[in-house]
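S.,

Sequence below, as promised.
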Amino acid sequence: MAKVHTERWFAKQERLLNNEPFKNTRKYYCHVLRFFTRMFIFPTVTALQYARYRNLCLKQSEDYIGKSRAVTLTGEPGVGKTFSATSIAIAIAGRRWEALKSDYLLQSAMINRWIEEGDVEKITSFRSLEESYFFYKEREAIGIPCLVSSIPLRDRCGRFSYQLTPEVPLQLVRLPEYTVIFNDESGLTQGAKTSRNASSDIKDFYRFNRHFGDFLLLNTEQGDDQNAKYIRIVTDHNIRLRRQEWIMKPTAALWKLEKQKAKFFKKQAQGKYSPERERYLAEKYYYREKYLKTIGFRAIPYHVTQSEGSGLDGENGIYYFPACGMAEYDDRAFRNLYQSKDKLLNVPIYHSLLVDSNPHDFDEQIVS
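The prediction came back faster than expected:
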């Protein structure tokens, strides 16, 4: 009888991939420590490394951007902008939710006094706070409180972020108080080309974001000047990221997996597997590879640069995140924007080292 993976096995693999951010790293290196129990130096160093990076991650998560209200993470493709921003957004939204709960509960004790005094301003403010609290509280099991985003995010509890739609900055949809607004690739919707023709409603939304709902803005974009001017002037600073590094990489396990894959591909090409056996091994190695990528930490150097809203410049540092991040997202979320995605593959092959057509023909097409 052919060996096949059960639904229970698949469910277990998915749970492993979505574990608490540090759990896979801790478990992996615990196995390593048990294997090297007769050696003293290696286990001690490994345990200290894990503790150090975990503590750095947790400490940074308490205050990623200080008192800033609007920040843009910039850098070339692949440096970890979205990965960093999603982890930062999850952490900040968690603190904003705690602040919303605290403020609502404390002000609940004051509302009768404000009603007796006829303090309309405080009563109005409290009612908005109350609505926001109950909006997120009633959906807390399925939605991430205080987080709207332009791409879907799922936290480690399986909850999804709320949708940042075009109606939000147009002030056609009301956001709850204390919400974090995360806009990935923000130049797509609030790019420099919109600086002049954006409606007054959009400009006012960003200009008065703290007044309208005590909102916090978090953007990602490749360049410091790609966002519209009405975004840049309210941005406290840009955070330019550099190339990320995989720390405490499970080198031995990755090496072993590559050997297993090479053997699998060779035998598969030789037709030595039955379809059932081939599928069984491919599933096993697929999940093994994804699991190993959750182990360790990511170090992403950053440099704070000026924006039109601030003269701050020059701060350098390194962000530390668990390798799997604090949120799950599709790193190709914008694939549907590719205009040719549904066309048949039909790329011609060169048949000579001579160029048949003028390569500068591209220039006219790009301009048009």
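Residues 268 and 274 are 9 Å apart (CA to CA).

Coffee later?
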